[in-house]
């Protein structure tokens, strides 16, 4: 038997326990470039741990659709991981709190155009899940020789569906 999760809007307040929402909401922190550019300064807490460095990779993910079956989450104990879409299509951000070394009840956030996320170090999260093609993302994460991935497979999968 499956368990259901409904999507919720991706907002900074709701997502705060898991990471940072990157967007250009509100007034810019500073106006630069001869008054022609608003700077929204320092919007993510990037963390690459010991023995690693920051890297930018490009991911090309196959789009999925709702309802979506969630059977596995992962986390990166050594670093944060930022997903920055290179297109305006929506994507799912599935996260779960840590419950004594295992994921707790997952939550599913639905992005709006112009939003990106930075997952904090050690946060359980679903795989990259674009809902429209192309699924191109710039991903900023740790590059290093030591392991930085843990996976958890649910005994009973969850079904993620739209709350609308």
Q: Name the poorly predicted regions.
A: none
Question: Total number of helical segments?
Answer: 1
Overall 3D form: globular
CATH fold annotation: Jelly Rolls
Number of E-state strands: 16
> If classified by CATH, what would the architecture be?
Sandwich
Compute the average pLDDT: 95
CATH superfamily: Ureidoglycolate hydrolase
Order of helices and strands: EHEEEEEEEEEEEEEEE
Text of the CATH class: Mainly Beta
Indicate how many domains the architecture comprises: 1
Give helix % range: under 10%
Characterize the largest beta sheet: strand count, sense, and whether it forms a barrel. Answer: 7 strands, mixed
Instruction: Return Rg in Å.
Output: 16 Å
Structural notes for this entry:
The chain starts with a strand and ends with a strand. 2% of the residues lie in helices and 50% in strands. The protein has a single domain, classed as Jelly Rolls (Sandwich). A hairpin with a 2-residue loop joins β9 and β10. It is globular. It has 164 residues and is mainly β. The longest helix is centred in the first third of the chain and has 4 residues. The chain has one helix and 16 strands.
């Amino acid at each position: 038997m499956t368990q259901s999760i409904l999507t919720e809007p991706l907002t900074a307040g709701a997502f705060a326990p898991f990471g940072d929402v990157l967007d250009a909401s509100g007034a810019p922190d500073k106006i630069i470039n001869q008054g022609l550019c608003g700077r929204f300064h320092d919007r993510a807490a990037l963390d690459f741990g010991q023995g690693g460095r920051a890297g930018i990779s490009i991911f090309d993910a196959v789009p999925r659709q709702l309802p979506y079956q969630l059977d596995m989450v992962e986390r990166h104990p050594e670093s944060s991981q930022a997903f920055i879409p290179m297109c305006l299509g929506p994507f799912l951000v599935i996260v779960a709190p840590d419950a004594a070394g295992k994921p707790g009840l997952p939550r599913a956030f639905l992005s709006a155009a112009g939003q990106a996320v930075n997952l904090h170090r050690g946060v359980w999260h679903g795989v990259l899940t674009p809902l429209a093609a192309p699924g191109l993302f710039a991903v900023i994460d740790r590059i290093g020789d030591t392991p930085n991935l843990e996976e958890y497979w649910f005994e009973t999968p969850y079904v993620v569906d739209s709350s609308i």
